[in-house]
Amino acid sequence: MKTVSTTPFQDQKPGTSGLRKKVPVFQQQNYVENFIQSVFDSLEGFEGQTLVIGGDGRFFNREVIQIAIKMASANGFGRVLVGQGGILSTPAASNVIRKNKAFGGLILSASHNPGGPNEDFGIKYNTGNGGPAPEKVTEAIYARTKVIETYTICETPDVDLDKIGRVEVGSMDVEVIDSVADYAALMEELFDFAAIKAMIAGGFRLAFDAMHAVTGPYAKEILERRLGAAEGSVKNFVPLEDFGGHHPDPNLVHAKELYDLMMSDDAPDFGAASDGDGDRNLIIGKGIFVTPSDSLAMLAANAHLAPAYAGGLKGIARSMPTSRAADRVAEKLGIKAYETPTGWKFFGNLLDAGLVTICGEESAGTGSDHVREKDGLWAVLLWLNILAVRRESVKAIAEAHWTEYGRNFYARHDYEDVDTQAANGLVAELREKLDRLAGTSVQGMTIAAADDFSYLDPVDGSTSANQGIRILFEGGSRIVYRLSGTGTSGATLRVYIERFEPDAAKHDVPTPDALADLITAADEIAGIRAMTGRNEPSVIT
Ligand code: G1P
Ligand code: ZN
């Protein structure tokens, strides 16, 4: 073991999902070591305890894992559990932490961002409940990164990450574990695998795009081997360090091939995809894309059809920009709906306190109290379980849902890599005029209220302010503006646009048409074109 002198970096602030930077930034001497030491220095009582380590397999994953193992040993952890090949999907890592009562875990991922020598990397610390560290921990880590002077590391050879089994690093045990087994077992506990298997045996066809990312091995095992989907149902299943040069982001832009397949005459019954680290999901039925906000509402309304949720839901939580479709399901079920800031970490307290069972975000994250991360394959399996019981198409289920609850037309417009000053200026100007907006009209619609979302955590009493600007119109339409907390270059302005339509006769309209006046209003209110110089969003989801 040796102690190494170092000097701090000033840019190691963990964002919504841990520390995210380009690979060359992480490759600077001592950059990784400083951050990991700052994490350990911010924790107490881990001596002799277990640390889980795993990542999504992207470029630089193995190198960081070796460093993390040697530093965990030097810092006094008793045991490290690491996924074979360095692979653990984010939800699988959460499960391994919980199941083994680990002290915490290091998850190496930049989620849906591209990977490769000049692309993105990330390190996130999760606590013993399996969820992302709360803000007070990430703030302590950040404070520590600014003053750190030394780190400690074991001078031992690299661990063979490909060989399942136990080795010693210093006086610490390292167990290389099967990346998939525990997770697959958990899914079998939650869902009616026999019913899904019977449906598939009866001719139901599915396509799952793993996007050359971490869910490949999980989806192969669960969907093809255990549930009997035809070989080839899981596409792009080999995790690659650069995701084959693509964005492992399961949206209509980056999973276009799947989308086109699902809209074609030869579409299978069900299509889905997951992202780089396996926590996001894209759901597409034959001829119908289900927005993540709708998916959350539809899963919540039907969850009782799966064994794990047969007893009903305790509550439903959604992030603020997520459409309010789920709120009406909660209302009907007579349970509470919670609205939290963006980022999965805010769901952790609600889940731990037993206030909610299901949570979701508009950004394709859905999950439940089975782990403390959003979970892409979980959402896929819950859909499959529901389809197996209802024996109706995705389209029929969606349309029946809208008829019963009304439809929330919804779109997110992202303006990526915008000049940071311009983006900050836009938000500052909006904030400044918030008080004057209520009662005014835009595009013939009256603004009922406008605010900057602030969240009071009902469990720990903490407040998170400035979480996004909400413009609420009379009749239930809404525009939300916020700046991304996960981008790695420039600023990303996200504009979330939603219109509630209770009348079933008006549901069969293309979303852009249904939202046209709100889209114009969004620009009029915030001056997006004028302030960012962009005439249209970079991505619409
Ligand atoms: C984005 C999503 C957010 C999600 C986060 C991590 O954050 O919008 O819902 O929790 O990625 O996956 P943002 O870039 O908007 O801060
Ligand atoms: Zn992700």
Automatic annotation (TrEMBL):
Cytoplasm among keywords: no
Reaction(s) this enzyme catalyzes, per UniProt: alpha-D-glucose 1-phosphate = alpha-D-glucose 6-phosphate
Cofactor: Mg(2+)
Keywords, alphabetical: Isomerase, Magnesium, Metal-binding, Phosphoprotein
CDD domains the record matches: PGM1 (cd03085)
Domain Alpha-D-phosphohexomutase alpha/beta/alpha residues, every copy: 12-150, 182-284, 293-405
GO molecular function: phosphoglucomutase activity
EC number annotated for this UniProt entry: 5.4.2.2
Record has Zinc as a keyword: no
Superkingdom classification of source: Bacteria
InterPro entries to which the protein is assigned, alphabetical: A-D-PHexomutase_a/b/a-I, A-D-PHexomutase_a/b/a-I/II/III, A-D-PHexomutase_a/b/a-II, A-D-PHexomutase_a/b/a-III, A-D-PHexomutase_C_sf, A-D-PHexomutase_CS, Alpha-D-phosphohexomutase_SF, PGM
NCBIfam families reported in the protein's UniProt record: PRK07564.1-1
UniProt family annotation: Belongs to the phosphohexose mutase family.
Family matches, as PANTHER family: PHOSPHOGLUCOMUTASE, PHOSPHOHEXOMUTASE FAMILY MEMBER
The protein, known as: phosphoglucomutase (alpha-D-glucose-1,6-bisphosphate-dependent)
Species this protein is from: Tianweitania aestuarii
